[in-house]
C-alpha cells in the first residue's frame, strides 16, 4: 500500500490525501482528550467504534436529505470523505442541561430544557474554543448569514432525527456538537455536515437509568469507558463481530 500524504491531524482523527481529487481519507484514533486537550488518554478500540457509529449515523442522515461529507467506510478505522472547507464554528445543540451549561447557569444536570438551545463556539485550541454569538460569526467573516441559516436549519433537523433514533434504542440525546464545511462543486457551493457523530461529541444517557454512555465517562473518571462506547454500537446493531478489533493489513471492507 502506498504511503498517503498526511493533510491534517487533530485530537481524535487524522486526514490523509484521498485516492481521487476532492476526497480525503479520515482515520479514527483511539486517543481521547478533554477540557480542551488538558486531559489526555487512550480509549482502546474507540477509533474502530466511532468509525462504525459515525458511518451509520451519517448514512441515516443522508437518507433523509441531510448533506454530509461522508462517502463510504474503507476499513475498520478509515472512511472516505469529500474534501470540504471547514467552517471554524462548532454548533452545539442542547436538549437537557449538562456540562458547561449547568455550570454557567447553575441548572442541575439532567434538567430538561424548555426548548432546544443552539450555541456557537469558535474552533481554536489556543483560545479554549470560546463561546461566540451570531454577531461575532458574521462580523469576523467566519460564516455568511446565509451559511449560518443553513447550519442552524441542518442542526435542528439532525437533532430532531437523532433524538428519535436514539430514543428508539433507549438513549436520551442530551446534547451534541456538529461541524460544517463548504463543499464546492464547479461554481456551486453548499453547506454540508462534516467531522463525525459519535459518543465523542454526543452526550448519550440511558433513558431509564440516566447512565452516561459517552465521553463524559472519560472526562469524569467514571470508568468502563470502552464498554460505554461498545454499548452504543451494540444498541445501534453495528458492533463488529468479536468486538472492536482492527483489520490486519491493507484489506478493504465495503
Ranges with pLDDT <50 over ≥5 residues? 247-254
CATH class membership of the largest domain: Alpha Beta
Any idea what the CATH superfamily of the largest domain is called? Answer: ATP-grasp fold, B domain
What separation lies between the terminal Cα atoms? 17 Å
Which structural category do the helix and sheet elements fall into?
alpha+beta
Overall mean confidence score, pLDDT: 92
- The helix fraction, in percent, is 25-40%
Q: Calculate Rg over CA atoms.
A: 18 Å
For the record, the CATH architecture of the largest domain stands as: 2-Layer Sandwich
Total number of helical segments?
6
Structural shape:
globular
Major sheet: 6 strands, antiparallel
CATH fold annotation of the largest domain: D-amino Acid Aminotransferase, Chain A, domain 1
Order of helices and strands: EEEEEHEEEHEEHHEEEHH
Q: Strand tally, please?
A: 13
Question: How many distinct folded domains?
Answer: 2
The proportion of strand residues reads 25-35%
Amino acid at each position: 500500500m502506498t504511503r498517503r500524504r498526511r493533510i491534517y491531524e487533530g485530537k481524535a482523527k487524522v486526514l490523509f490525501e484521498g485516492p481521487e481529487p476532492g476526497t480525503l481519507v479520515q482515520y479514527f484514533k483511539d486517543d481521547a482528550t478533554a477540557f480542551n486537550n488538558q486531559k489526555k488518554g487512550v480509549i482502546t478500540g474507540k477509533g474502530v467504534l466511532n468509525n462504525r457509529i459515525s458511518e451509520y449515523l451519517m448514512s441515516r442522515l443522508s437518507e433523509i436529505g441531510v448533506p454530509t461529507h461522508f462517502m463510504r467506510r474503507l476499513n475498520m478505522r478509515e472512511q472516505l470523505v469529500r474534501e470540504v472547507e471547514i467552517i471554524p464554528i462548532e454548533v452545539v445543540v442542547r436538549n437537557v442541561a449538562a456540562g458547561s451549561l449547568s455550570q454557567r447557569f447553575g441548572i442541575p444536570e439532567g434538567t430538561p430544557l424548555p426548548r432546544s438551545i443552539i450555541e456557537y463556539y469558535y474552533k481554536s485550541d489556543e483560545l479554549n474554543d470560546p463561546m461566540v454569538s451570531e454577531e461575532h460569526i458574521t462580523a469576523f467573516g467566519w460564516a455568511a448569514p446565509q451559511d449560518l441559516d443553513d447550519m442552524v436549519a441542518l442542526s435542528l433537523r439532525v437533532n430532531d432525527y437523532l433524538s428519535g433514533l436514539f430514543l428508539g434504542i433507549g438513549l436520551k440525546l442530551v446534547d451534541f456538537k456538529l461541524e460544517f464545511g463548504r463543499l464546492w462543486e464547479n461554481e456551486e457551493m453548499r453547506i454540508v455536515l462534516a467531522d463525525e457523530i459519535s459518543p465523542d461529541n454526543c452526550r448519550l444517557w440511558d433513558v431509564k437509568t440516566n447512565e452516561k454512555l459517552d465521553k463524559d465517562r472519560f472526562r469524569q473518571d467514571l470508568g468502563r469507558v470502552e464498554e460505554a462506547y461498545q454499548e452504543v454500537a451494540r444498541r445501534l446493531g453495528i458492533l463488529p463481530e468479536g468486538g472492536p478489533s482492527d483489520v490486519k493489513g491493507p484489506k478493504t471492507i465495503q
